[in-house]
Amino acid sequence: MPVETDELSLAVVMERKPLKSNWQPFQWLPAEVVLSPIPAGAPRCLRDDPSATLWLYPGLSTRLYSDEAEGYFLNLDSGAPCWFIMWRMEGELAVPQFVTLSYNEAARLMDGGEQVDTLPLPAPIMEKLGSFVVEYYRPEPKGKRRRPSFEGGAAVQQMAHDEGGRRHGR
Asked: What is the pLDDT of residue 40?
């Protein structure tokens, strides 16, 4: 049975930066993940000026699940451990929907067409994630390698023999 950790309360700050482009006037990106006991509620505009717009989205959370341990391992092993923030445009605002620490979960979201961006993981969260991985991640044992058909074998020889017979009218 999978194990899960306590919920980690988060808020995400999204930033809109102007771009010097004829095709896209601005770009939205996550600016910060805040470890926060701020309860869920309406997003708050923290700053709105020509240089940048910042919105705080409280009430998000994440947990660690033992059946995602491989994804956490891959995140830590990447050389740049990070938060994965999935967000969607809602009208004129970029709204974070989901935060995970699993590389595999983020990949599944992107495969499904979702927008996922990253932010660096702070050291205390990296340590907790590392402890969880040590406790729950068990790499799959490597199986015996089967010889591919292009390396030969009886089936390939039989197929070549049969093919040769058809070409020569046998």
From this structure: 78
Low-confidence residues of the chain: pLDDT under 50: none
Q: Is residue 117 part of a domain?
A: yes
Q: State the pLDDT at residue 139.
A: 87
Which H/E stretch holds residue 16?
A: strand 8-18
pLDDT at position 167: 52
Could you tell me if 87 and 57 are in contact, meaning their C-beta atoms sit under 8 angstroms apart? no
**Residue 56, CA distances (Å) to 40, 62, 91 in order:** 11, 17, 16
β-sheet bridge partners, residue 96? 87
Q: Does some domain include residue 106?
A: yes
| The pLDDT value given to residue 80 | 96
Does 159 reside within a domain?
no
pLDDT attached to residue 5? 82
Joined together, the tokens standing for residue 102 give 């699993």
For residue 47, what are the domain limits?
8-136
Cα–Cα dist 48/50, whole Å:
7
For 27-79, give the DSSP string: EEEEEEEEE--PPS---EEEEEETTEEEEEEEEEEE--BGGGHHHHHHHHHTS
For residue 161, give every residue at least 6 positions away whose Cβ sits within 8 Å of its Cβ, in sequence order, or none.
Answer: none
Split into its structural domains, the chain has a count of 1
Is 168 domain-assigned?
A: no
